[in-house]
Design brief:
The complex is a heterodimer. By secondary structure, chain A is of the alpha+beta class. Chain A has one domain: Peroxisomal Thiolase, Chain A, domain 1. Helix content of chain A is 36%, strand content 26%. Chain A has 15 helices and 17 strands. In chain A, helix 8 crosses helix 9 and helix 9 crosses helix 10. The termini of chain A are far apart. In chain B, helix 1 packs across helix 2 and helix 1 crosses helix 3. The two termini of chain B are 13 Å apart. The chains are: A alpha+beta, B mainly alpha. The interface between A and B is medium-sized, with 21 and 15 residues.
Chain lengths: 418, 81
């Protein structure tokens, strides 16, 4: 069987953020509870940033580092999102055009809440493994932003429980038969899915749901997706088969709870063993998520990036991955990465890009939260004030960044902030 | 085992998960959220209670009770079922 997996990965974590501790103080939230979230910062999308600009900003460095011949082999662009901007036209069409890719390409969008990134990744990997177009590459981009305070006057209050954790970000991965970064274990996966109304986005600018039910569904899925994986894969051992574990990360505290439950139920681990295991195998995966908040479809891939950025890869390491999307569907799968892959990831300087974001004051954040400058779903024509928060303008940092410029007859027009 | 025994087990597990509640009375009318048990710790209490009762149910089946009395009723029904 041919090898397949991730050739290269990049993350775009926006151009502005707020300090979550400051937000919780500002909102008067209970600080001990805040500490349990294991969150530090969250990315805030500016009015002239949308899921397309996030996706393109994540994917551009991957595409530009390819030769012309390699670029012409990108035969599939899958966008994975729960932040769609049109019921029919996929984000992929914009992304494909803005990246200047060849026309012989499959373009589509995948939705299944925060599971979307894994669904897209698995579609791409199975396209490569199928061998129907030898040497082809697929670009998969999970891109999500949260702007739920827009719906009406009550929305900010309703949104309060998830405000400190909901973030924005896009992870782009190039999937191919040269998986320099991360090679999938083909056929090694497990699923668990059932219908549940835990959290959802019933309208373009709002989120609804129940935090308890969502935690319950996540915990059920984590255990049973792993058990399905163990059913398919001979002699798997949760303790020894995986050097690192990456989880979909609504917030770090949830990952900690899911890991604790998995360790207790599957291998009867003691609390002290679980704590040590969390610090060693799981916490490296939280390093980027803690700085951007929940990136939904991208978050399990961001956990992979965080692990590969910070953990020890002096020997090849197997990484177990758990992905969950409300509604719900989940998957446990695995792959292998080595020092060469880690070196490639380090070249993307992901931490530095996060350091360059502009820190919003609470006053600036409140202006953005009111959303007067944000276009609603289905807006026909619009222009954007790129100086709404002057310090956050992406041109102030190094590199080429895409921003929304205007909307003409529903068509979103973008420009490069250089 | 009757419903009050189940309630006693739940309260015992709350005290293990949230030692800060020592000395505070916890009864059937209380909800975990209201007495200050955070969302992840609530799940922990449910997991420990199920273990103590020898139940192995999907977590989502424990969604719905508004207070500890209702939770005890639900778990008691699951035990008998």
């Amino acid at each position: 069987m041919i090898a397949a997996g991730i050739e290269s990965l990049n993350f775009y974590g926006g151009s502005a953020f707020i300090d979550v501790h400051e937000l919780c103080m500002y909102r008067g939230l209970d600080m001990p509870r805040f500490e349990n979230l294991l969150m530090k910062e969250k990315t805030v999308a500016l009015p002239y940033e949308d899921p397309v600009s996030f996706a393109v900003n994540a994917a551009l460095p991957l595409v530009t580092q390819l030769s012309e011949a390699e670029r012409s082999r990108i035969e599939m662009v899958i966008t994975c999102t729960e932040s769609g901007i049109d019921f029919g036209k996929s984000l992929s069409t914009y992304v494909h055009g803005l990246l200047g890719l060849k026309p012989n390409c499959r373009l589509f969008e995948i939705k299944q809440a925060c599971y979307s990134g894994t669904a897209g990744l698995q579609m791409a990997i199975n396209f490569i493994l199928s061998g129907t177009s030898p040497g082809a590459k697929a670009l998969v981009i999970a891109t999500d932003i949260s702007r739920f305070a827009l719906a009406d006057a009550n929305a900010i209050e309703e949104w309060a429980y998830s405000e400190p954790t909901s973030g924005a970000g896009a992870v782009a991965v190039l999937v191919s038969d040269t998986p320099w970064l991360w090679r999938i274990d083909p056929g090694a996966y497990g699923n668990h899915a059932f219908e549940v109304m835990d959290t959802c986005r019933p309208g373009p600018d709002n989120e609804a749901g129940n935090a308890d039910l969502s935690l319950m569904a996540y915990l059920d899925c984590c255990e049973h997706a792993y058990r399905d994986y163990a059913r398919r894969v001979e002699a798997v051992d949760l303790r020894s088969s995986f050097d690192y574990l990456c989880f979909h990360t609504p917030f770090g505290g949830m990952v900690k709870g899911a890991h604790r439950q998995l360790m207790r139920k599957v291998v009867r681990a003691t609390p002290s063993e679980t704590e040590e295991d969390f610090n060693r195998r799981v916490s490296p995966g939280l390093s980027f998520g803690q700085r951007v908040g929940n990136t939904a479809g991208a978050s399990v891939l961001l956990a992979l990036a965080g692990t590969m950025e910070t953990a020890d890869f002096s020997q090849p390491r197997r990484i177990g991955m758990f992905s969950y999307g409300s509604g719900c569907c989940s998957e446990f799968f695995s792959g292998v990465a080595d020092a060469g892959g880690q070196q490639r990831l380090h070249q993307m300087a992901l931490g530095m890009a996060l350091d360059q974001r502009y820190r919003l004051s609470m006053e600036e954040y409140e202006i953005l939260l009111r959303g007067n400058e944000v276009i609603r779903f289905g807006t026909r024509d619009a222009r954007f004030d790129h100086q709404i928060v002057p310090g956050a303008w992406p041109a102030l940092v190094t590199g080429k960044r895409l921003v929304l410029d205007r909307v003409d007859a529903y068509h979103r027009e973008y420009r490069w902030a250089e | 085992m009757d419903r009050n025994d189940v309630l006693a087990i739940i309260v015992e597990k709350i005290r293990i998960v949230e030692p800060a509640l020592e000395g505070q009375a916890i009864g059937a009318e209380d909800s975990m959220a209201e007495i200050g048990v955070d969302s992840m710790s609530r799940q922990e209490v449910l997991i420990l209670s199920m273990e103590a009762l020898g139940l192995n149910l999907p977590m989502v089946q424990l969604f719905g009770p508004r207070n500890l009395g209702e939770l005890a009723d639900l778990l008691h029904v699951k035990l008998s079922g």
